Amino acid sequence: MQNLVDKINNKILSLHIPAHPAGLYEPVTYTLALGGKRMRPLLTLLGYSLFKDENEKSLDAAVAIEVFHNFTLLHDDIMDNAPIRRGKQTVWSKWGTSVATLSGDVMQIMAYELLSGYEPSLLKRILPVFNHTAINVCEGQQLDMDYETAENVSIPDYIKMIELKTAVLLGTAIQLGAMIAEANDEDTRNLYEFGKNTGIAFQLQDDILDVFGEAEKFGKQMGGDIVSNKKTFLLLKTFELADEATRAKLKGLLNEKDEQKKVKEVKEIYHRLEVKKLAEAEMQQFYSKALSSLEKVNAPAEKKKKLTDFTNKLMKRDN
Length: 319
Fold this sequence. Notes:
This protein has helices at about 1-15, 20-35, 40-50, 60-80, 90-95, 95-115, 120-150, 155-180, 185-210, 215-220, 225, 235-240, 245-255, 260-275, 275-295, 300-315, and strands at about 85, 90. By secondary structure, the protein is mostly helical. It is globular, with a radius of gyration of 20 Å.
């Protein structure tokens, strides 16, 4: 797998990012150099490799997905007021919100430039899929912000939000790889479902790690979801299970200004109601759905195993 990561990183390094104006492009270079798991572009390459032996033709699409993903992070970090990303300062906290907004905008355009190099017949197939997903991601981010102040958010509401904000991009990443490899429509649909449900499971795991992970490994502000009153599965399930007194205390904690106290006391309630176990069970349910979709894909078992080896590691991460 490392050879694929190296291939992605080398392609990113080869991107033409101008030196001037430095205020626009330095944050782009900084963001792409932060690395990360590169799981979305890896899914694109692996999706292609299910059907063809080489994967060079899917590399531009893989990097387009990664650049687009990083563009969304720049904007999300502004909206979430997040100070840390991958263990480093976020772009807005380092350069300011105006710079982060504009640098994110140019990254979005870079993603489309990468896709535009495909032959017209293929571009006509993959561009509508990419565009639909891009709109979904924006819809998901808006719902995420809406839910911070909404009173009656259900767990199905939350699952739909993370599907749009996070999971559809994983589904599209692997789907584009398969489409570029000329896979049939049924296989590309099943791979989309595999990626999407893996993405939902991955986000549920991210919610768990935000509260229960180790700060040094997680690379983001610990308890950030609690501080910003995000309606995660953990919080929603707690409201669902809590007695009246606990629910009243939890509502009071949402307005707590002392962030350390807020995180500590909300975590204590989570521990008492054992919502971490319930979140892990929900995560596993979606990952099982993903694997069921992959089983339907008409590709060699050894190639599918390479894909599941990768996603199994994602589901067992501690950062």
